[in-house]
Design a protein that fits this description.
- By secondary structure, the chain is an all-alpha fold.
- Among the domains are: about 70 residues, no CATH class; about 70 residues.
- The chain contains eight helices and two strands, in the order E-E-H-H-H-H-H-H-H-H.
- Helix 2 runs antiparallel to helix 3, helix 4 runs antiparallel to helix 5 and helix 5 packs antiparallel against helix 6.
- The radius of gyration is 27 Å and the shape is flat.
């Protein structure tokens, strides 16, 4: 049996720190374990940081967070995050959909909000569920992006807009995402160069989006704002490439920004 030498509480075998104060567990039964009605140990006077002076004791939420973080593996933390996301976004659906049905007697605005909630949950959860498998993430999210654009057009009773704008734009996004993944995967060392590739992809996407809009709206190509976006992004991407390969000298982002 393990004990907390400070609080005197009994701890489970797999626990290394007290869940109340964060003190390292011991196997020797402390005197505080036999002190009936002993008040919870207070932090030394003047200590407002939550950590006792001269020790590694933490109290309150910080100690509990440390215990939870240290006791869970990376996969378990991802699973907890997915569950929290599911509960949070599921709660949003359970609130918005009944309100729409109660006030309008049919699905009106809740169709759009539900599509946004589901899409956001999916784009946040899939990277956690399929961590370490970027191409599997792409295989799930790329088709869904096209489906989401199609459902949006259906909800608006305007399939023509999907054929003119939604479908070509989502195909372009999927193609650029695949290209970016392939380019980044080919890098021996990943860092600022990956960010630079992403910015170049955004520049190309902005040109394509405005081109699709112009061709469908007026039948003529007249690039305007997308050129400004590209002019702003491409030099930044070039600077990042320079920093990665020349200035940083292959240093990682973690070392560069002291993460």
């Amino acid at each position: 049996m393990k004990y907390c030498p400070r609080c005197g509480v009994e701890l489970e075998e797999q626990v290394d720190r007290c869940v109340l104060c964060g003190q390292l567990a011991v196997r020797t039964r402390p005197a505080t374990a036999d002190a009936a009605g002993l008040a919870y140990p207070k932090t030394p006077a003047g200590d407002v940081s939550g950590v006792a002076h001269g020790s590694d004791v933490e109290i309150g939420a910080d100690a509990f967070a440390r215990v939870v973080r240290d006791s869970l593996s990376e996969a378990e933390r991802r699973r907890v995050a997915v569950e929290l996301l599911a509960v949070s976004f599921g709660s949003a659906l359970l609130v918005t959909v009944p309100i729409d049905l109660f006030t309008h007697g049919a699905f009106t605005w809740s169709k759009f909000s539900s599509l946004g909630v589901v899409s956001t949950w999916l784009f946040l959860s899939i990277p956690l569920i399929l961590a370490g498998a970027p191409w599997l993430q792409y295989a799930v999210l790329a088709p869904y992006l096209i489906l989401a654009a199609f459902l949006l057009a259906v909800f608006r009773n305007d399939l023509g807009s999907f054929l003119r704008y939604g479908f070509p734009v989502t195909i372009a996004v999927d193609a650029l995402a695949a290209s970016t993944l392939a380019i980044v995967a080919a890098f021996r060392r990943k860092g600022l160069n990956a960010v630079a590739v992403f910015l170049c992809g955004l520049a190309v996407l902005s040109l394509f989006v405005e081109g699709a809009i112009d061709l469908n709206a007026s039948g003529a190509l007249s690039l305007d704002w997308s050129v400004i976006v590209a002019i702003a992004l491409v030099p930044v991407a070039g600077l990042l490439f320079h920093l990665h390969y020349r200035v940083v000298d292959q240093a990682s982002l973690r070392k560069l920004f002291r993460l």
